[in-house]
Design goal:
Blueprint (H helix, E strand, L loop, with lengths): L3 E6 L4 H13 L5 H15 L9 E6 L10 H6 L1 H8 L3 H8 L8 H13 L7 H8 L3 H5 L1 H14 L6 H17 L3 H10 L6 H12 L6 H15 L10 H14 L9 H10 L7 H4 L6 H19 L3 H4 L9
Antiparallel strand pairs: 1-2
Helix pairs in contact: 1-2, 4-6, 6-10, 9-15, 11-12, 11-13, 13-14, 14-17
Length: 326
Amino acid sequence: MTAKRIVVPAVLLAVIVLVAAWWLALSRTESAEEFAAEASAAARQAREPPKPGSKSEVIAIGSPGPSLPASPVLAAKYEMRDAIRDTTDLRAYYERTKDLPDPTGERAYRMAEAIFECTAFMDLPVPDLSARLALTKQARESPRRQEAFNAMVERCKGFSGNPRAVAELMQGLHRKAEAASYPAEVARSLRMESERRDPEAGDKTAISLLSAPTPDPDVVHELAQYLNLRMAGHPDYRGIDAAALAVAWGLLECQYGADCGPRSRPVTMTCIAYGACDLTRVEDAIVVQGSQATVNNAVELRDRIARQIAERDWKAVGLAPRSKAP
């Protein structure tokens, strides 16, 4: 199948950098002042102008490979995910559902993730928030972008006012999901507690989670970050295009059934950050800093990782034997 071609700016999606910094800040116990300082620093980094000479370019996104067929089973599987994504008042939804039974821990995990996403739209005057997240002139001038931004502020406003309380709430939800052994939360815990866990046991858990007939996309999302930490500094990791690898894992999530459509978070954030509000797929929102070769590498890596998981080639996936201390 021929590659589909889309036009995107040839710069790194700064929102991803910003979100990563917020995530690290919120996953630790720290004061509200420390959190605010880290968030502000991340925002400044995200808004740095692109390198001289960077410009829009046409990139090719290869065939995403076989996607999961639509079915009532899959529709039911993602019913809660979509309900949380589509609610216009997240605080009201949380209050309405917080005491409902959650035997699998799914609601706790998804609520924690949704509240985290809201941290980009809280605790600053709305004009300042808008200016912080508008990374291009097109975003600053787009009425449709402003509508999307306003909708996110409205969705998230119920959690504004106390960053420490929000951080503690998210941490509590994650603990609840982990206690219920929700697979994506178990995967998340591997990276969040990597320094305290038995490394070999962590790898065995990762292998077990990836061994499902069809890996869960949220598990894949969490394990991609675990593997990045896991393989940092490993000889087998040297020479790999880190940007392409991150994009590859994101494309793999889509292939396994992640929310990658027009209402997905990456597409929404691309509209808000760049004013590109006509996108319908995550593939359209992929932005990398670098060359066409980086994008091509991502597509190749995605297909390779999918094949390695299917073949249970865990060393190739990144779960290589750890170096023994001398």
